[in-house]
Amino acid sequence: MYVIPAEGLKVPDPVLRDHLPAEGREVPRDAYWMRRLADGDVIETLPPAAPVAEGSDR
């Protein structure tokens, strides 16, 4: 799941041993992150769209 920290909070990531960046990151849907979500420490959201490379035929 993709999460961002709630406004004004620094949320530790126990796997990477840093804080969740303001732009968020993909994290496992495990007990730790579900607890953070239930407590309102993080917000589940969609990941940012990947930029399309210039010169692409799409």
TrEMBL record:
Domain of life (superkingdom): Bacteria
UniProt cross-references to Pfam families, sorted A to Z: DUF2635
Family annotation (InterPro entries): DUF2635
Name the record gives this protein: DUF2635 domain-containing protein
Record organism: Falsiroseomonas frigidaquae
